[in-house]
Amino acid sequence: MNRVRTAMIIGGGIAGPVTACALRRAGIEATVYEAYTDIATRDASGGALSIAPNGLDALRVIDAEEAVCAIGQPTSDMVFENGRGRRLGGAPGLPGLPPSRTVLRADLHRVLREHALDHDIRTEHGRRLVGMREEPDGVTAEFADGSTATADILIGADGIRSTVRALIDPAAPGPEYVGLLGFGVGAYLPGDGDPRTAPDTMHFAFGKRAFFGYWTRTDGSVALFSNLPHAPMTTAEARAISAERWLGLLREAHAGDVPAEAVLRAASADDLMVAGPLELMPPLPHWYRDRLVLVGDSAHAPSASSGQGASLAMESGVQLARCLRDLPDPTAAFAAYEAMRRPRVEKIAAAAAKTNNSKAAGPLAKAVMALLMPVMTRTVLTPERMFGEAQRHHIDWSAPVAA
C-alpha cells in the first residue's frame, strides 16, 4: 500500500477534531464529517468533564492546550468524603504536573471545532455515515443524505455507539451499562456557603443511597453530579421523564447527604441536566480492518469514574497520527497504534470498573468503604499510585514509531 495522504474522520466531538489536527501536523489532509446539523443540539447533550494532565499533554502537541485551559476551571485537589461531609482521604495534584481542567462539554466541543477551523480543517455537518465501499486504493463513505466522500482511510471517532465499529466488525460488542444514571445540577447556596468547597478542589462522596461529587464554580454556585443506582434505561427514556420527577427522586436519594441535600433543595427543575446511563466499552476484538480504524470512545470508552475518557481520546488521536506519519501503509500503522494504545486504555478502564462497583454498592458496602478509605489513602492509595501512571503519560511527537 502507498503512504496515507488523505483521511475521513467520522465524528466531530472530541476525538475527531484532535485527530484531524494531529494528522495535519503529520502531513495528512483530514476532513471531519459530523452527523449533527444542529451543533447546539449535540452540545446540549453533556455536562461537565475533566481533562487530566495527560490530556493537556496531548493537546499541547496540536497547540490547543492554551485555548482549552482558558475555558476550564483548574482542579488541583480531590477529596473523598462520606455522605455526612466527613473527610475520608485526599489526593492532591501531582508535583510537576499542571492541574486538571473541569470544562463544560459544549465549551470543549466549540473550542476544538474553532481550533480545527483555524488550522484549515474542513468539517461537514449533517453527514451521517450509513455505509462504505472499499476501493483498491482507498475507501468511499456513504452518508444518509445520499452523498459520498473518498479518502485513503476512514477513521471512526463516532463515539460509544460507533457506526464505524460495526463496519469493522459486525459482531463487535456494544456499550455496557454500569448500573448508574448520571445527573448534573448547579445552584447558589444561601448564606456564606461551605468553606470546604474551594474552587480548585473536587469532592467525591459516598452518600447513603447514591454517589455524588461537587465543586464550587467560578461564579460562586455549587455544581453537583449524582450517580444514581437504577435499572437499565436509555438516555431518551431518562429524558422523557420530567425534570421535576427526577429532582424529587434525587432529593429522596440524597436526603441527609452534605452538601447534596442543600444543593438539590436550592435547585429548580430548570437547573437539572439528565446525562443518562453511565456506560463503558468492553475490550474490542478488533480496532481496525483494512483501511478503517477506531479512535476515542468508539474503541475504548472507560466509564466516567475514570476521569480519563476525554484525555484518552485525545492521546489516541495524536498517537494514531504519529503511527500514520512514520509507517509505510495503513495496516502497519494501525497495528502499531493498537499495540501502543490497547494495554494502557484497558488497564485504566478496568480500574474504573472497580470504582463503579463501589458507587453502585448497597449501604453496608458503602459503610465498609468509608471505614477503609482513610487507611487506604494514607498507606496504599497515595496520589502517585492512584493517578501517577495515567496522568504522567507523555507523548514525544518527535520520536519515530517502529512497526
TrEMBL record:
Q: Which GO terms describe its molecular function?
A: FAD binding; monooxygenase activity
Q: Which domain of life does the UniProt lineage start with? A: Bacteria
Amino-acid biosynthesis as a keyword of this entry, yes or no, is no
Q: Give the UniProt keywords, A-Z.
A: Monooxygenase, Oxidoreductase
Q: Name one Pfam family in it.
A: FAD_binding_3
Q: Residue ranges of the FAD-binding domain? A: 7-178, 286-350
InterPro entries the record matches: FAD-bd, FAD-dep_Monooxygenase_BioMet, FAD/NAD-bd_sf
What this protein is called in its record is FAD-dependent oxidoreductase
- Taxonomic placement: Bacteria, Bacillati, Actinomycetota, Actinomycetes, Kitasatosporales
